[in-house]
Amino acid sequence: MSISNNRGIAKLMKDRRGTGNAILGVFLLLGLSLMIFLLIEIAHLYMAVHHVKNDLDFANMAVWKDMDREGLAYGTYRLHRKDEPRMEGLRRGRATFEKYLSYNMELNPFILTPINTDTSIIEGPVRIERFDVYLSEDLPVEAPNGMLVDRVSVYSRINVNVRTLFRLFGETVNLDIDMLSNIENDLF
Asked: What is the rounded distance in angstroms from the CA atom of residue 110 to the CA atom of residue 128?
């Protein structure tokens, strides 16, 4: 039995055109498979970024529920009430932002880690790197991402580790995601 196998291998090796085609076919299949895995991985990361950006935008917009309604009636956009310092309104706005960010991304409140680690695409804690509220008296100003802010807006940037599917880029990919949400046009 081993003699016939050796003859088959020897015959394959003598047929240079067939061997070359077989080797080329194997490498072509491997290359195409790798390209398909790479495309799927990139699409997964693209969708993860847009999902997180959407959650971040909703958390930014939730800050405006703390807006001073009395001041809003007179056309003044502010988070603090007339009798309290501006920092108190900003503190309340950040607390609302964190609450809605944790709700939108299904994170544990206060520690911002995924509630269900088995089904979440997020690995580890979400870090809030920046949270800014731009009110009327601050405008115009340039946001940290380089955009000109000429409307009442909220800017936030978070850092999140996203799990990869095929581990082509490692176990996780570290992403910095920022969002500038303006509210002035959406109020009326």
From this structure: 11
